[in-house]
Design brief:
By secondary structure, the chain is α/β, with parallel strands linked by helices. It is 31% helix and 17% strand. The chain has a domain of 130 residues: Chitobiase, domain 2, CATH 3.30.379. The structure holds ligand TNX. Ligand TNX binds next to loops.
Length: 539
């Protein structure tokens, strides 16, 4: 590291500039040289991913971020203001003080600088949307809720040159094209799932992934916490689940688990990014780690050995034992206490070793237990083989639009979360050359991930039954953060766009160009993305 770089890094640390960064990696990335090889380019409002509802660029108007720029926030928006300033300080090196403006200040929208206001937004933005105006004098983001301001901040990042995402000070200039965006999501649930059971992923990895999800306005993170190969969350009333059941993983490595404090830190970090965590404890199948930890949970009273392969469908909880339901109640009770969000995911997939009648009986009792703990059930779509409660959401992971059982459940009110494996599974290989991933649902290139309509995907399921979309990342072959990034980016932004952007804006040709403009941002953030040949990558 050059001396100038080192002293700059020290200055930044002393000023607390890196502390509010977007992930642990920000602290370890090597500082870049101060002289940028070329002047930063202005990014277009038309390049934003996910595509906003309305975009009106104002030709010949630009706003420039300078060393004197301030961030003004109304009461209740200070956290979002601090988050924005933290990101901008790292690459600009500017002070960017966050200053309160009273909500009733008559001139609150005309302050010179960046304003985040919880008033005055176009009413169409709802709870999660925002209005963003860029004039020569000011950037003003207005929303009805902090979540909307946060979404607007993600858009603002994309209006700045890609170098704004650098972890170290760059030269600028920091110019934003003028105009107006009014935006709101199409679907309420825009999710990603990370399997931390097949391979355990440490807290820092999950936090970094949360920051990457936030870039694309994802608002749910589903954590697949338990499976045959590992139990990853401490449960006080059944301690061996984590200490023994979490002691290995696919391939036989050491595994690991989250303490309750670790887990609370993930939930809190996600909350600070307006992301709700959905914890999953899979049952009645995918339970070998639990059976290995407590022999009394097996029908035959014998504990199987820990499992480090990748087969599915061989383990089951025992429908006839009362201890099964005490176990479920204890586990879900402790999990509910750690969960501010509305959902507990109870799995329900691939229960090939459970008799259909036992499956239905267990899933019906489990749904009641979840309700008794004040939560709603999310489950893989096989749950429609039991009797879904009115609040139960079925997550579709099939590979065809034909699912008469799911369509029938939707007709009686079951909401559907869409994760068709041949479109939305981030663990599928992109093509035959992808070094990671599986192929049972086929190859999933970027166009496959993008080119479908969640509102019209399953035959005879009306758009009004669709709660949202989710991109699951199973980790049988996924070991490191770099692996996660390679499989998620750029397919995750594609799925996120399906959840956020109006169906009327769906257009592969336009999307792949916008996606290409994200490349330099990912490079600046050190994200290990897949350079799909389908995408015209900007340099
Ligand atoms: C199917 S999708 C599974 C998982 C595997 C995944 C691998 C689903 C509900 N179950 O157990 O990890 O395929 O792609």
């Amino acid at each position: 590291m050059a001396t100038a770089g080192r002293s700059r890094l020290r200055t930044a640390l002393a000023a607390g500039m890196l502390a509010a960064g977007t992930g642990a990696a920000a602290l370890v990335a090597p500082p870049a040289a101060n002289a940028d090889p070329q002047a930063a380019k202005t990014s277009s409002m038309r390049d934003v991913v996910p595509a906003p509802v309305t975009v009106k660029p104002a030709a010949d108007t630009t706003f420039t971020l300078t060393s004197g720029t301030k961030v003004f926030t109304s009461a209740g928006a200070r956290d979002v203001g601090g988050y924005l300033a933290g990101i901008l300080r790292r690459s600009t090196g500017y002070r960017l003080p966050v200053v309160d403006v009273p909500d009733d200040a008559p001139d609150r929208a005309s302050a010179k600088g960046i304003s985040l206001l919880l008033a005055g937004a176009d009413p169409s933005v709802g709870d999660q949307g925002y209005q963003l105006d860029v004039t020569a004098k000011a950037v003003v983001i207005r929303a009805q809720r902090p979540a909307g301001l946060f979404a607007g901040v993600q858009t603002l990042r994309q209006l700045l040159p890609a170098e704004i995402e650098s972890a170290t000070v760059r030269k600028g200039p920091w110019v934003i094209g003028g105009g107006q965006i009014v935006d709101r999501p199409r679907l309420a649930y825009r999710g990603a799932m990370l399997d931390v059971a097949r391979h355990f992923h440490p807290v820092e990895t999950v936090l970094r992934y949360i920051d990457e999800l936030a870039l694309y306005k994802v608002n749910y993170l589903h954590l697949h916490l338990t499976d045959d190969q590992g139990w990853r969350i401490a449960i006080d009333s059944w301690p061996r689940l984590a200490t023994y059941g979490g002691s290995t993983q696919v391939g036989g490595g050491v595994g690991g688990y989250y303490t309750k404090a670790d887990y609370a830190a993930i939930v809190a970090y996600a909350e600070s990014r307006y992301i709700t965590v959905v914890p999953e404890v899979d049952m009645p199948g995918h339970v070998n780690a639990a059976l290995a930890s407590y022999a009394e949970l097996s029908c035959d009273g014998k504990a199987p050995p820990l499992y480090t392969g990748i087969a599915v469908g061989f383990s089951s909880l025992c429908a006839d034992k009362e201890i099964t339901y005490k176990f479920i109640d204890d586990v879900l009770g402790e999990l509910a206490a750690l969960t501010p969000g509305p959902y507990l995911h109870v799995g329900g997939d691939e229960a090939h070793s459970t008799k259909p009648a036992d499956y239905a009986a267990m899933m019906n009792r489990v749904q009641k237990i979840v309700a008794d703990h004040g939560k709603s059930v999310l489950a893989w779509h096989q749950v429609v083989g039991a009797t879904p409660l009115p609040s139960t959401v079925a997550q579709y992971w099939g590979t065809t639009p034909s699912s008469p059982e799911v369509a029938a459940a939707a007709k009686t009110g079951t909401k559907i979360l869409l994760s068709p494996a041949n479109k939305a599974y981030l663990d599928m290989k992109y093509d035959a050359n992808t070094p990671l991933g599986l192929r049972w649902a086929g190859y999933v290139e970027v166009k496959d991930a993008y080119d479908w309509d969640p509102g019209a995907y399953i035959n005879d399921v009306d758009a009004s039954s669709v709660l949202g979309v989710e991109a699951p990342l199973w980790t049988e072959t996924i070991v490191t953060l770099r692996d996660i990034e390679y499989m998620a980016v750029p397919r995750l932004p594609a799925i996120a766009e399906l959840g956020w952007s109006p169906a009327s804006s769906h257009d592969w040709t336009a999307f792949r160009t916008r996606l290409g403009s994200q490349g330099p941002r990912w490079t600046a953030q050190g994200i290990n993305f897949y350079r799909s040949p389908q995408v015209p990558w900007a340099s």
